[in-house]
Specification:
Strand content: under 5%
Order of helices and strands: HHHHHHHHH
Largest sheet: none
Helix content: over 70%
Radius of gyration: 17 Å
Length: about 170
């Protein structure tokens, strides 16, 4: 079993005994958030914008539309990240909802929204979002790990451990 799963499993086991649930979930969510963010948060926005402009110059209007939507998603992710960094949770949640609905690829917006829900005590809402993501892709280890965090924060440590064990089996 990979080390990250063993570590999270130990944390969840301790949580099941009532030890500082909020503190640990906050730390785990923050660690996931930091690793998910690119070194240059504007790189994705710039790349999508450049691709849209190139498609537009080539007369590929449908491709340009798709790339502009990606740029829009990337912009909402940056705005949401800035709001989250300032602990403006409601604004961050709204931005991540917009990011999730900007394209047909809502994963990063939904992951970020789930993190906001965990941070703000709405772990059951996060678990609902993450359950849908995991159902779409059982091999999505990041979503499964975050789902385990949401389940633990929702008072379901046994389900959290089960999710981690299943994720480890697919890793």
């Amino acid at each position: 079993m990979p080390l990250v799963f063993l570590t999270i499993r130990k944390v969840i086991h301790r949580l099941s005994r009532g030890q500082c649930l909020g503190c640990v979930v906050l730390a785990l969510a923050s660690a996931t958030w930091s690793s998910a963010q690119a070194a240059d948060p504007l790189a994705g926005l710039q790349a999508a914008s450049d691709a849209a402009e190139a498609a537009l110059r080539d007369g590929e209007l449908q491709i340009a539309d798709s790339r502009y939507r990606e740029a829009l998603r990337e912009g909402w992710l940056v705005i949401g990240g800035l709001d989250a960094a300032e602990r403006r949770w409601a604004a961050a949640a709204t931005a991540f909802e917009h990011a999730a609905s900007a394209t047909v690829h809502p994963r990063q917006g939904l992951l970020s929204l789930a993190l906001v829900h965990i941070q703000t005590g709405r772990a059951p809402d996060a678990a609902q979002i993450l359950t849908r993501l995991v159902a779409r892709d059982k091999s999505d280890i990041e979503s499964r790990r975050l789902l385990a965090q949401a389940l633990a924060a929702s008072g379901q440590p046994a389900e959290a451990v089960q999710e981690l064990e299943e994720a480890a089996a697919t890793a």
